[in-house]
Amino acid sequence: MTVNRIFSVAGKVAIVTGAGSGLGRVFAEAMAENGAHVACFDIDEKGLSETAERLNALGAQVVTSVGDVADCAAVETFVSEAVAAFGRLDIAFANAGIPDPEPALLHDYDDANWKRVVDINLNGVFYTDRAVLRQMMTQGAGKVINIASMWGLAGASSIFPIPAYNATKGAVVNLTRELGLQYARHNIQVNAICPGFFRTNIGPQDAETQKLFTDFTPMGRIADAEEIKGTALYLASSASDFVTGTALVIDGGCMAK
Amino acid sequence: MRFSGKSVMITGGATGIGRATAMAFAQEGARVAIADVDPRAGDTAAAIEAGGGTAFYAECDVRDADEVSRFVERAIADHDGLHAAFNNAGILPEPKPLHEVSSEALSRIIDVDLKGVFNCMQVQIRHFLSAGGGAIVNTASVAGLIADPNMSAYVAAKHAVVGLTRAAAVEYATQRIRVNAIAPGLVATPMTQAWLDDASFREAMFRHNVIGRAAEPHEIAGTVLHLCSEAASFTNGAVHVIDGGQTAH
Question: Model ipTM?
């Protein structure tokens, strides 16, 4: 294989959960821009159809499915529909996630909020990974990309108290390590992306928060959403064929300081 | 092509990861300056030129800061600037338990594997500061994150390369200089050939290594190209592990 093709995903089939907004939409665009077909899942129907329009404009074949990643049956139906539509599944972005609904110290933490974050950020990844790995095992190859966070590698309370996010993203990082081991011999690479602060169409947009994030980041800026595309392409393509069970930090230096 | 119009330098480009990465950079359009003490790096440059690319090889011992400085100056002059650097030159010690490692043996590993990287970074960073930015990728190792037995000097030097990478990443973060490291696991290269030929080594190595094989050098190149490119514009101070899962356990 020539190097010109090692970053290629042309003709591949990718799925993205949480594709209706934020980084999920960007992952879907990164795949579509580089010639992949994309199946998109989100609980937000309007956001999902906007993503689909953007991908169609890029010339990609797209299928969409509305649902909640905390609903195992919905996730499995989505993956089945994606395979039925495109005949295979090469790349999966288990991306859907939520922040702590009400940031709080743990002794004041609300039960329902905790369970909701665990349901989406951890159980949702479990349902997604299990469904896509079943398909990838029949194909003998695949790329699973779990979206964790730099807050899966470190506590966050120097910025804000988000214990459920910390716990679930840390769990996704270690699940990824274990899956890297489990599927290493099956030619399926499982890796995590740990983003720092990115500017997308979701998340806090107020100036005070932006300054907090900027000041925390050694590079002195918040990333543009586009800047995650290169890492997505790297992990989705054969450029990373010997890379598995790792967590890639893309945070402007936050975790190095 | 990712590196059209870009100038990159690579140390340790005669064989192994350095050679494969030099070839990959050239195929992506980069002009490639190759430093090594091993004249076989001339073959790497010749192969690039034969393929229609632009490259030169110059003998350069990374332990010698003046030689490194002259090499970087030539790369900038001949290739119209310098945009990315892959500080990859390194050597392995003779395996020995720590209490038997001589001071000379320790110094030799530290001089090449740590000070060599430092010497290169210093010159590159001075240039990048005046040129408005650049990307550096250092070759650490999984031995920069975990320990192999009987490799104490190497483990120490590679851990230090990880530290040096993070330190520089933080220091120059606002000056458009990104510094990252790669941590390859076992890669089949001339440097590791004696190990791979040793059945008892292979048995010990792969007992807990789920992927059960060494990487080929070209399997490392993709990560280096990614980190050196604009595609990694927000990746700074990161260590990208390429080990088939070796360190996930």
Answer: 0.91
